[in-house]
Amino acid sequence: MYSFVFALSQVIDALIPTFTIFVTAAFINAAIEVFNKEATMNDLVLPIAMIFAITAYSVLSGAVMKLIDTSRVIYFRKTLVPEMIKFRASLEYRHIEDQKTHDLIWRVFPYIENTVWNMFTQVVEAVSLIIFVLGITGTLFTQMWWLAVVMVAAGVPIIYFAAKAGRASYNADRDMTEIDRKQWNLSWILIDRENVEERTVYGYGTDVNDEYVDKFEFARKYRLKINAKNFAKQKMVALLSIVCTIAAILALIPRVFAGEMSVGMFIGLVNAVIALSDRLAWGVNDMVVGITKSREWLKDLTDFMKLETIEGATDEPAKNFSFREIEFINVSFKYPKTEKLVLDGVNFTIKKGMHYSFVGENGAGKTTITKLLTGLYDNYTGEILVDGKNLREFSHAQLKSLTAVVYQDYARYRISLYDNIAMGNIADFDNREKVEEAVKLVGLEETVSNLKDGLDTPLGKVLAGGVDLSGGQWQRTAMARCVINPAPLKILDEPTAALDPVAESTIYRNFETITRGQTTIFISHRLGSTKLADIIYVLDKGKIIESGSHSELMSCDGVYRRMFNVQAKWYAAEASDE
């Protein structure tokens, strides 16, 4: 509807200038005849009425189109934007970690609803321009055919150079994408409330601001150089249309004196030719630049839409999912665009109802195991079996329902505390009783009781009435989100890495108590939680080099024992129990 109304208005706008030629000619000729007493005032009524109608349409159509455009923006944001966000959310995880994909998204996504609409309007405006040009030149052709040909020919170089300018301008944006993203990140460091304490304490604001200015100026000067060069070429060519306009007016004058053209028609044509010249010199140029940039944007959009997606990525987790045994059989994995194996022939088993711990130095491959278990990557070799079924054969809804993870960089959502926890089980989001139970299990009761609006208190001071939680309270919130999730496998992937070793050990112990009888995996490069595990897997350079219980591994003179003894001073209380 919006598109049809806009297209119709553009067609009418394109026809009006040609119509105006004849209306203007009729009015002026009638006025001259009235002045010479060759006609009466009644002969002016129709031309004046038509002029009034054209003027009224111009005023009213502008107001109506603004109203329609507002409705169109709302409609696009409700339909197009959610679909594109859904597509983006369905991208394979490897694209999320790819710098080129981020650059592509940066160019495609901002204000996509306006970009798509602008593309449509540019096409419609191009059709409108063709109608406008045909109307003016067609009328001019009836008076002096060769002049019409010259005016059209004058537009060819303008279109050519405008197209080159559009491509150059968009390529400049492509070249500067990474710089633009870095500049945006720096600006966020300078203005984000989360960074205000460190900005004050370390005083890095000036240095970051200088770097921001350097990148801003580099991008600005780069674009300015290209645009200035294009502008100079375009305007030099635009002078050609001005010369043609002057020539057209001078060529029409003799026909007026010869009586071959009425004064009204001459004035109407002069106004039309000037309008045509203006459209050729400025309107056509801007329109072609816009169309060319949109064409380049379409190439980026096409590349974006070609990115591989995961079927069912946005589906809700499946219900009542369970397992008896998970097996990694000779699993090897390396990240895209790298050659180093992060996992190298890994074999292990996870059995229902048992606690496991994966330990090893940073980079040993512990978190990568989590990424494979959760289905973020499936380009591994070997097999991952869940009750004998290949993990790749599970739907994404089933993969989501298999695990609940508390990551090292757990999310801190600027929404209510209730929503922060309840989103752990989106299928039962409104079950307040379960949220309250999770609050008790992770020890957040006192925190909730001290909040003005309890569970409904917004978190983060960017919201009205919002409060900040301490680091420990945020950790417990993330764990409550994990606890409330019905997934049969719970994973703690170093969410306490920022804590001291003893505090970390306490958190793991509390979580083990909460999840007793369930299947859990603790991942850490520190060993305070390992005694809680039934089985410990020790990783080194992508291989499992030892496995067994804490007592079994301590009885051997292996890597685990040496690691534990090195860290023993951190866990003096636990060590004294040995």
What does this entry look like structurally?
The chain has helices spanning 2-35, 42-89, 93-96, 99-108, 112-143, 145-175, 177-191, 196-202, 205-257, 263-305, 366-373, 396-402, 417-422, 432-441, 445-450, 471-483, 501-514, 550-554, 559-567, 572-575; strands at residues 325-333, 343-351, 355-359, 381-386, 389-390, 403-407, 489-493, 519-524, 535-540, 543-548. The protein is of the alpha/beta class. The protein folds into two domains: 2-305, ABC transporter type 1, transmembrane domain (ABC transporter transmembrane region fold, Up-down Bundle), CATH 1.20.1560.10; 325-576, P-loop containing nucleotide triphosphate hydrolases (Rossmann fold, 3-Layer(aba) Sandwich), CATH 3.40.50.300. A six-stranded mixed beta sheet has the order 6-7-8-3-9-10, sandwiched between helices. A four-stranded antiparallel beta sheet has the order 2-1-4-5, covered by helices on one side. Strand 7 (489-493), helix 17 (501-514) and strand 8 form a beta-alpha-beta unit. Helix 6 (145-175) runs antiparallel to helix 9 (205-257) and helix 14 crosses helix 16. It is elongated.
